[in-house]
Amino acid sequence: MPVRLDQSAADFEQQFLSLLGAKRETSIEVGDAVEKIINDVRMRGDRALVDLTNKFDHLDLNQTGIAFTQDEIDAAYQETSSQLIGALNHAYKRITAYHERQLPKDELYTDDAGVTLGSKWNAVDAVGIYVPGGLASYPSSVLMNTAPARVAGVERIAMVVPTPNGVVNPTVLAAAKIAGVTEIYRVGGAQAIAALAFGTDTIKPVNKIVGPGNAYVAAAKRQVYGTVGIDMIAGPSEVLVIADDSANPAWIAADLLAQAEHDKSAQSILITPDAALADAVEKEVERQLEILPKKHLAGPSWDDYGAVIVVKDIDAAIALSNRMAPEHLELAVDDPQALVGKVRHAGAIFLGHHTPEAIGDYIGGTNHVLPTARSARYASGLNVHDFIKRISILGCTPSSLSALAPDAVALAEAEDLQAHGRSVSIRLNR
Amino acid sequence: MPVRLDQSAADFEQQFLSLLGAKRETSIEVGDAVEKIINDVRMRGDRALVDLTNKFDHLDLNQTGIAFTQDEIDAAYQETSSQLIGALNHAYKRITAYHERQLPKDELYTDDAGVTLGSKWNAVDAVGIYVPGGLASYPSSVLMNTAPARVAGVERIAMVVPTPNGVVNPTVLAAAKIAGVTEIYRVGGAQAIAALAFGTDTIKPVNKIVGPGNAYVAAAKRQVYGTVGIDMIAGPSEVLVIADDSANPAWIAADLLAQAEHDKSAQSILITPDAALADAVEKEVERQLEILPKKHLAGPSWDDYGAVIVVKDIDAAIALSNRMAPEHLELAVDDPQALVGKVRHAGAIFLGHHTPEAIGDYIGGTNHVLPTARSARYASGLNVHDFIKRISILGCTPSSLSALAPDAVALAEAEDLQAHGRSVSIRLNR
């Protein structure tokens, strides 16, 4: 049974804080093991990849090669059903169209003081994309991680995917082909992150690494941060549904379960001012759970981390949501647009009764790589800005330099940086 | 003596790679010590801050209080010269004006499929700014770190600054007052980062931490990343000057020394097609170095990490610069704008003969917090985007949901996520 909270209860604040603070992940201490793996790959390159893949994935890369060949990728594409290829292409097209609007413009202007100022955007040269193996090897994630990089203009997109015992999801390779991934390697874990960050004979180093992974992958990303850029450290996924009496309990239940089926540490929460709706949704979840293939994951997720919160009104629901900063926020009300302005912290908003989160997971166009575990308080979902960077531009004329010089020199002297001041004043003596 | 490289030499590529790979910082292994400090602050809060500040800063916070009082801040402002207050205000105004143009617009549109898409930007609620104590306690850095946060709309800006033996730079407090910092605490080191990330009775937790610090501060930021957002891990600073025969050797030398005076691990590089200019600049550096108060820092920096590279033409200079991705890039040529388009990787560009980097350090308007140690390959200087985050918006109507549903369900089924597919299809059966 999920927890049921009522805002009118005397101990509500305490219970809400306990819900906010609940840890859904036991962090494993793998830092030392990961450090050893990274050093091994730095020292021995491809030979370390062969040995570590033998050990962890039971696969002999000397037999298979480290990189997938174009023939292997094409074969995977061929064996994917045309319906699925059509769906992947449709999704990729919509994701690309949405992300294209995120490209910023370069700027150059001269201000009142006669100073030229501006900014110039360039793509990162090379990006690495980590794709988990096994259960969580999702073709949709390949599209979501690759599309913004392609839109940004990244030239080299290197994908790594572990293939335990040599098994790979062919649809993942097909998605990579559709998305324009330039190279694919059958390595995973911390060793794959190390190879992308530092390079080996086969895998040239990249400048930024994105994509989710297990505790070893997360620890490796944290350790190579600085040598390369990284995206966020992803945690277990969550949805928060805000619904009023206009909502359909069966639909809300389906959305809560779609989140819960990801894994046992996923979290699904309903907040509503309507206690009757809360009851009806709880009943519907139990009913739909019975016939769900992933009952073994969704059941524990809902029982352990699910929550149903009855509040006094919709504004109170939004206020609690802002404190939670959910990854996904569904506004299951008749006029969702009226609430959007009040949302301060969330990864993505899904508007109204006909926008289940799953539409955004696949084909809506928005990105499904979103900040988890309350990090929407400071982080954004994956977007084009993750793959471009900004160069600032500054230019003075003799006269604008003269105008700014006295205050620049005063500040330099206050900081005891005489050579700074001198580099300004030396230009005034002509 | 700095290294002198000539592109026409047979071993040039090898020498350039060795310059690129030179480590200017010995990384101290402080991870374990930092982990203990963070845990201590998490467990004991203010009491840990008192004990650690006693130990590291020889200051009794029980006597002074952890927070600076408004009276103390006002007194520091009063004792700052009016010339300096004027310079700080001038700088802050210019920095603010430049950063205001970085604010993105919210967006909401409906595409051909009838799907509503958009994005909405919100400021981070609370930000922590780390200001080093001692030598590197720079008022200009207070302005540079705070201005983009203020422009973004951040409500709470908490500054921490260690005050060894109780000594603080009053100009730093004056700058904080001018920039609108909302609270200032006399703590530093890993303990200050821990307090900002997890909160104590006195210091409420923030959502993001920015600002440079020593190895302990850097390690602490790495460890709390995920609990809060962090900015880049800053390394030693560097300047690359590209100059042709139109450049003034004395001015270039002054700029190289302005960089070198920061500390012994700073790096100053000149690339020029003009061997005579290279000779003249080297001579000028030696001459100016003699009379420089910070000769003890600038001398070793120039001798150990300085470099003068003679190339065949300006395009070759830009190509090498793109491989280095320098923090600061000066284009000391007559027509710098013609080169800007060719620059792919740099933190900031300074245009022409009359724009010494120091103008950008203080008063140009651009930010002086820039990506060091070649991280401009994937990172930007500090800007408004570091203090805002993006919520994506997606909305379907019954008919646009019907149009997208088949491909969404096909992808969900390919990923074996039946509840995802069901959350879409259940809405079609009415």
Structure description:
2 copies of one chain form a homodimer. Chain A is of the alpha/beta class. Chain A folds into 3 domains: 3-25 and 235-364, Nitrogenase molybdenum iron protein domain (Rossmann fold); 31-230, 3-Layer(aba) Sandwich (Rossmann fold); 396-425, no CATH class. The first copy, chain A, has helices at 12-21, 31-44, 46-57, 61-64, 70-78, 82-100, 139-152, 170-179, 189-198, 215-224, 249-260, 275-290, 295-305, 314-324, 337-340, 357-362, 398-414, 418-425, and strands at 3-6, 107-110, 116-123, 126-130, 156-160, 183-185, 208-210, 229-230, 238-243, 267-272, 307-310, 328-332, 348-351, 388-395. In chain A, the strands form 3 sheets. Chain A has a 6-stranded parallel beta sheet with strand order 1-11-10-9-12-13, with helices on both faces. In chain A, helix 7 (139-152) links the parallel strand 4 (126-130) and strand 5. In chain A, helix 17 packs antiparallel against helix 18. The mean pLDDT of chain A is 95. At the A-B interface, helix 6, strand 3, helix 11, strand 13 and helix 16 of A face helix 6, strand 3, helix 11, strand 13 and helix 16 of B.
